[in-house]
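Fold this: ParB N-terminal domain-containing protein
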Amino acid sequence: MLDEDELQALADDIRDLGQLQPIVLDSSGRILDGRNRLRACELAEVEPEYITYSGTNPSAYTLSVNLRRRSLSKGQAAMIAAKACSVAEHDPRSETERSARSVSEQAGVSLGRIGQANTVLRYTPQLVDSVIAGAVGIDEAYQTAREKKAQADSAEAQLAKLRAEDPALADRVIEGELTLQGAWAERRARQEEEIRQRRVATQLLCEVLPSLAQTRGSRTFALYDPEFAPPGRAVTREVIEHAATALVEMASVWKERNLP
């Protein structure tokens, strides 16, 4: 779009001389060429004139008129070409006709520039119009886009890793219930709690089992006196039964885990 002064000059010209070129629409009524003329007609309070494009390749037409009418840098031309191709991604042309090489030939810029423009279009779409307007260079925009791409690639890798470790958490991220950062924080908190529980359990077993094992073959059992038992920790037949069952279960777990 023209700046405010340029639009006003165009509006004054249309008011004085009339609209010399019609605004071109596609079959759906979208503007292919003439956004500035439409805005200038509105400013001049002149009823705009329209025609409908009758060709079979509206995106190529838009690209052609933009590149022909304006004095553009290679970066601007590449960005216009990439944007035009993106808008027409569902058109009936073959994939070959929409290829980067085809667009490169139409725009008269290198495949490298088209590649840069496509990266900007995908990862920093907010910079596209600034590049086309010449406010931001294609190299600067491409560098920003590359940084965004690296972040996106990293996020995808982190999500894939999270899915492998905790599918339920990954689903919550995909559903928007959690951010990726929040999911990993929850994952770390769970891991830390699991480590804490393992540490407590290990210390308890290491305190109880070796001492119990030392009583084997001794007179310790015969010397047990309930009178000297700590409050709430008396050894009863029920406690012994539970302990025996626990030892059987423990032996089974040790065997499954192949522990010594």
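Residues 224-260 form one domain. The chain has a mean pLDDT of 87.
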